[in-house]
Amino acid sequence: MRPHTYIVIPAKDEAFRIGNVLHDVKKEGFEHIVVVDDGSADRTGDIAESFGATVLRHFTNLGPGAATQTGIEYALQCGAEIIVTMDGDEQHFASDIQHMVDVLETEPVDVVLGSRFIQREPDAIPSSRIVYNVLGNFVTRVITGVTVSDSQCGMKAFRAGFARKIQFQFNGYEFCTELIYIIRKHKARYKEVPVRVSYTRESLRKGQSLLNGFRMIFRLIKYYV
């Protein structure tokens, strides 16, 4: 019997992409989909509703960490047994969701971390993202003592028991490193699995920049160190 799985998708100004994301998720057989519209200035929320997703709205932009927290809390209230997070910009592939769920069902782990850098296809990831991830992994290791191959990937899966322990202090992209800190703090069992990604000019423009990445690193070090 398939566990009660919820897919949580933070999204800001993704009106041109969110429909395709939701179509692909539903095609994989997942019906419990939560889109957190994080202060979009376009019709992201309306389009998500038209595809049958539950839409939670932040009336101002709070950041991906806050949006992820909102979605996780809602999924838990609805009785989710497994929660999967993914981006709303078509970067991730819905076909990877089931494998992450299968790992949680069949292996003694609490968290599954998607990694873009396991079995990476040549030229699939822009050099700017590679540099940013190297820096993110280094800071994550310094702060948490945990070494992972892709600390900044937004595609993750949790058992409900672990998800209840998540209380992000950071609203922005820092939440990715903060999650690793929470894993270590609670001695949670985790596993990294390969996920595929597809970048477009738009997703690169909207994503984390190198300059913002350095600012994020400074905030993390200031908070934890």
Explain briefly what this protein structure is.
This protein has 225 residues and is of the alpha/beta class. It has helices at residues 18-27, 44-50, 64-77, 97-106, 127-144, 160-163, 175-185, 201-206, 210-224; strands at residues 5-11, 33-38, 54-58, 82-85, 111-115, 156-159, 190-194. It has a 7-stranded mixed β-sheet, sandwiched between helices.
What report would you give on this structure?
The chain is of the alpha/beta class. Helix content is 42%, strand content 16%. The protein is built from nine helices and seven strands, in the order βαβαβαβαβαβααβαα. The chain has a seven-stranded mixed β-sheet with strand order 3-2-1-4-6-5-7, sandwiched between helices. The radius of gyration is 16 Å and the shape is globular. The N and C termini lie far apart (45 Å).
What brief labels describe this structure?
225 residues, 7 strands, alpha/beta, globular, seven-stranded mixed beta sheet
Cα shape: globular
Overall pLDDT confidence: 90
- Uncertain stretches: none
Strand order of the largest sheet: 3-2-1-4-6-5-7
Rg, alpha carbons: 16 Å
Give the percentage of residues in beta strands: 15-25%
- The structural class is alpha/beta
Largest sheet descriptor: 7 strands, mixed
Percent of residues in helices? 40-55%
Number of strands: 7
- Assembly form of the protein: single chain
Order of helices and strands: EHEHEHEHEHEHHEHH
Q: What is the number of helical segments per DSSP (H or I, 4+ residues)?
A: 9
Distance between the termini: 45 Å
What is the topology?
Blueprint: E1 5-11, H1 18-27, E2 33-38, H2 44-50, E3 54-58, H3 64-77, E4 82-85, H4 97-106, E5 111-115, H5 127-144, E6 156-159, H6 160-163, H7 175-185, E7 190-194, H8 201-206, H9 210-224
Parallel strand pairs: 1-2, 1-4, 2-3, 5-7
Antiparallel strand pairs: 4-6, 5-6
Helix pairs in contact: 5-7, 5-9
